[in-house]
Amino acid sequence: MVTPSWVRMMAEYNAVMNRSLYESAARLDDAERKRARGAFWGSIHATFCHLLWADRMWMSRIAGWDKPPVGLKDSGTLEADFAVLAQRRSDADAALTAWAAGLDAAWLDGDLAWYSGAIQSNVTRPRALVVTHLFNHQTHHRGQVHALLTQSGQRTGDTDLFIVLPG
Predict the structure, then answer these.
(1) I want to staple 53 with a disulfide (CB 3.0 to 4.6 A). Which of 5, 75, 126, 163 is the partner?
(2) Which residues pair with residue 125 across a beta bridge?
(3) In whole angstroms, what is the distance from residue 8 CA to residue 93 CA?
(4) What local confidence, expressed as pLDDT, does residue 1 receive?
(5) The domain containing residue 56 runs over which residues?
(6) What confidence score (pLDDT) does residue 164 get?
(7) Residue 166 lies in a domain
(8) Are strands 121-126 and 111-116 parallel, antiparallel or unpaired?
(9) What percent of the chain has pLDDT over 90?
(10) How many folded domains does the chain comprise?
């Protein structure tokens, strides 16, 4: 069951993992971060861009954040400068953590309605499902980044939830 405490835990995990992966990626030069590596979004940098784009898009629906300035197909080009991207990621993680801190069970029990550009349709789903998707999507693409960083010789540290977060 999705509870406010679960959402807070996942927001914390998200922030910790993003910091770790961005620190690892910062040890690469810009050309290496942007090198096409065969991932869905191509490069480490583009995958980071897509992740930030998706978090911002979902949170625009969930919590009224500003929508990203580009659409899904251009999400891998959200921000060209890695330092700016890293700061925006950090800011988004702080905002997501703050949002999660104020979440209550009644909100999670409701539905969310939005227009999905990905499927060109109006959609209504349980909020708990949407929040689960948000965190699942992050984990999915962070796993890709982790693999790309590992292939490039970078160490990223532990990624297991029970190791990363204190008990």
Answers:
(1) 75
(2) 112
(3) 12
(4) 86
(5) 4-159
(6) 86
(7) no
(8) antiparallel
(9) 89
(10) 1
